[in-house]
Design goal:
The complex is a heterodimer of chains A (about 90) and B (about 600). With about 90 residues, chain A is mainly alpha-helical. Chain A has helices spanning about 15-45, 45-50, 60-90, and strands spanning about 50-55, 55. In chain A, β1 (about 50-55) and β2 form a beta hairpin. Chain B is built from 21 helices and 4 strands. In chain B, α19 (about 505-530) packs antiparallel against α20 (about 550-565). The relative contact order of chain B is 0.18. The chains are: A mainly alpha (about 90), B mainly alpha (about 600).
Amino acid sequence: MSESKNEIKHEKLDPVHYWRENLKWVGALLVVWFLVSFGCGILWVDQLNQFHLGGFQLGFWFAQQGSIYVFVVLIAIYVRLMKRLDKKFTSGD
Amino acid sequence: MDLHYWTYLIVGLTFALYLGIAIWAKASTTGDFYIAGKGVPALANGMATAADWMSAASFLGMAGLISFAGYDGSVYLMGWTGGYVLLALLLAPYLRKFGHFTVPDFVGDRYYSKTARVVALFCAIFISFTYVCGQMRGVGIVFSKFLEVPIFWGVLIGMGIVFFYAVLGGMKGITYTQVAQYCVLIFAFTVPAIFISLMLTGNPVPQLGFGGHVVGEPGVYLLDKLDGLSKELGFNSYTGGIKPKMDMFCITMALMVGTAGLPHVIIRFYTVKKVSAARVSAFWALLFIAVLYTTAPAIAVFARTNLLTTIPNQSYGDAPEWFKKWESADLIAWQDKNKDGKIQYTQGAAFAGKPVFLGSDHRGKSGERLLANVPTEGANELFVDKDIMVLANPEIAQLPNWVIALVAAGGLAAALSTAAGLLLVISTSVAHDLVKKTIDPNMSEKEELIVARLAAAIAVLIAGYFGLNPPDYVAAIVAFAFGLAASSFFPVIILGIFCRRMNREGAISGMIAGILFTAAYIVFFKFIRTDLNVKDNWLFGISPEGIGTIGMLLNFAVAFIVSAFTPKPPREIYDLVNCVRLPEQEGEELDVVEH
C-alpha cells in the first residue's frame, strides 16, 4: 500500500526501516519490562530486600509498587517514540 | 443516617446513572454494537478499558488475596498490570490497524482458514464464560451482604441491569457506562484506603502510607510491625514469600500474557479512531488501572494489621460487631477447639474446606455458630473468607456509613462493567464469527444485530445461572481464564503479526496443543485429583495457576515445528501482515470494514 506513494519530496522512512526501528524500541522497552518485574520483583528479590526505601524492603517495593509505576512509564515512552516514528514515516522530516 | 439507607441511596443513584447512559447511547448498527462505531476517544476508551478490566476479582478479591499471601500476592499485582505493556507494544496497534470486529476475525483472516476462526471462536467463548462466573458471584456477594436481599434477587437485579445496557446499547452503551463505572469504583476503592491510611500511618496517600511509620508508635514502620505481629502469631513473615521462585515466575508470566490475550480486553482497542490512539488508550488504561493496583497492596497491609491486632486471643463475647455480622453471612467461622472462649488465630487451616454451618440456632458456649466441619489438628481456630477483606475493611476500621455504602456500589460497578464486556464478546463471537462468518454469510446487518442481541440475552441468563451456583473463589476461578488465554490467543496473535512465515497449519495446531495441555493440567489438579494438587506432583514445580506459561511455550513450539513442514502462507497474507505493521497513511481512513 505504501509503494505507490513513495515518490514524495521529503525523505520518508521506508516500511522496512520503519519496522526495524519499531522492533528496536519494542525490544529495548521489553528488556526493562522484564528486568523490573521478573528481575527486581522475583529473581533478585532477596538481595534487594537488604536495601530499604523508607519502610519498604526494596525487593518487596518493586514487586508491589515499583514495577507497576515503571510499566506506566514504559507505555508513555513508547507512545512518544512511535509518534515521532509515525511522523517520519507518513510525512518525512 | 442508617447504613441501609445509605446503601440503597448510593447503589440506586449509580444504577440510575448507568441506565440513563444506556438509553442515551443506544446502538443502531452492527458497527455501533460491536465496536462503538470506532469513535471512542482514547481517554474515554482508557477509562472504559480499566473498568472492563477491573472486575469483581480485582475489586473484592485481590486485596484480600494479597492480605493473606503477603509478598506471594505480588504475582497478581505485576501479572495483571504488566500485560498492558505487552498489549501496548505487541498487540493493540496492529490489531487496530487490521481493523475488524473480533479476535477470531483476525485469526480467521490472518490464517486464511475457517477452522482457525472456529477454534479461536470457541477459545473466546470458553475464556469469557470462565471469567464471567466470577463476576456474577461478585454481584451476588455484594447484594446479599449489603442490601440483605437473597442472592437470587441480587443476581436477578444485576442481570436485569446488564441485560438492559448491554443488549440495548451494545459496545457503545457498554463503553460509556464503563466510563461512569470506573469513576464510581475507583472513588469507592480509594476513599476508604485514604481514611484508613490516615488513621494507621498519618499519611493520606495509601501508596506511601504502608511504607510509613505507625501512628502512636514512633520509629516503628508499619510493615515491620506487621511482620512482627505475623511471626508472633506463628504466621510466615508478610514481606517474605514462601512460594518457590519458579512458580512465582510462571504465575506472573501466565497472568501477564493472559491479560494481553483476553478477548474482552483486546476488543476494546478496536473501538478507537486510529492506530496511534490504540497506543495512547493503552497508556490511559494502565494509568487508571495502576491507581487501583498500587492502592490494593496498601489496603492488604492495613486490613491484615487491623485483623491481627483486633482478633487473635480476643474472647468471642468481646469480638467486634463486624466479626459477628460476617459470621452470620457464613464468611467467618470460629471453632473453639481448646474451649477457652478465646479466638486463636495462627498458621494453618482451622478445618478442611469451607465452613458448613449447622443452622443459626445451633450455638456454642460463647454464642458462636457451630460447624459440621471436623477440626484439624492445628491450633488455628479461625476461618476468614478472603473475599470479604475489602468489603469488611471499612467496618473493621470503623469508617462512616456512607463510605461502607460506597464500597458496595464500587463492588457492583466493578462486577457489572466486566460482566457486560464479557457478555459483549460472547454475543459478538456468536453473532459475527459463528453465525455471520461461518454459517450464514448472506445475513443482513439488521438480522445480524438481532442475533447479536439474542446471543447477549442468552449469555446473560447463563451468567446468572453461574452467579446463583458459584464455583470456587472469585479470584481463583478467574486465574484459570488467564492460563487459557495465555496458551491460546497470545501466541497466535503475536506470530500473526511478527512472523510472516507462520501458516494456517502451524497456528491451528499450536492453539489446540496449548489450550488442551493447559486445560488438561488445570482440570486434572483442580477438579479430578484435587488430593494430588501439591508441589511434589507438579510439572517443574509449577502450580495450575502458572501452567499457562508452559502452555504458551508449547503453543509457540508446536506452531513453529508444524509450520516448518507445511506450505508457506499465500502471497496476500504477506501483504496483509506488511500492511498491519505500518501506521495508516495520511488521508487514509480506517473505516469499519463491512463484510
